[in-house]
Structure formats: C-alpha cells, structure tokens
Amino acid sequence: MAKRIHQITIHLEAGNASIPELGKMLGPIGVPTIGVKRRYDEATAGNRGETIPAVITVAEDRTWVMRLKTPTTTSLIRAIVGSGSARPGHIDGGVLSVDQLRQIAVRKLPDLNTTDIDIAMRTIAGTARSMGIRVE
Description:
The chain is α+β, with helices and mostly antiparallel strands. The chain contains five helices and five strands.
C-alpha cells in the first residue's frame, strides 16, 4: 500500500451500510462506495442491529484498507439496559449489574487502551454513569 493520505472512521448499521452516508464520507476522496459497502456488509452481517465502527485507510493511489472495531460502548449498554436516562444525574435510566458490566468490558477489551479487565470495567462504568445508568 502506498503512503496513507486519509483515515476515516465510519459508524454504520452492521450488515446494512447506508450508501448516502458512505457517499458523503468517501466520495470527496475518490473511494468507491459500493466496494466499501459490500465489504462492510459482508464482514458485519452476523451483528445486524448493532453499530460497528470501521476505520478506512486510503492511500494516495486510492487503494483502501478497512479495519473493523468493536461496537460502541453506548450501543452495547443500550442493548442490555435500554435507552438510558433523558436527564442523566437527575432521572435514573436503569441498572447495570456487575456481570453485565464485565460482559461488555470483555467484548470491548480489544479496542480499549488496557489489558486489565478491572480497569476496562471502570471505563465502561463511567460511560454508563454518563448515560444516567446505575451500576450495582
């Protein structure tokens, strides 16, 4: 691959990437959106309903490489608890058990900047608190 000129992170629905959204992000740099959509949809088809981030690195000769990441922390928490609080800090948005917190931390561990599960759990708990979700 030639010298990297762009690195774009996309957050789209797994297995069903939106062509207009991809076109907005990739069109100005000359990346073929259909090729990206096909590869993204194939790679994420097993996780339909989740939002899977992907980092697309584009070289000066317009070749590109895609690397998938784990789903966003907030989407994993919402899948377990629900939507969270409309007013975090004022209204309770639900409860997340320690076992559920550990489950999310294990799944997010490859994308976090730690290898310690306890530190990863504290990071996930902070995100949950900012969503108005209590951890017990």
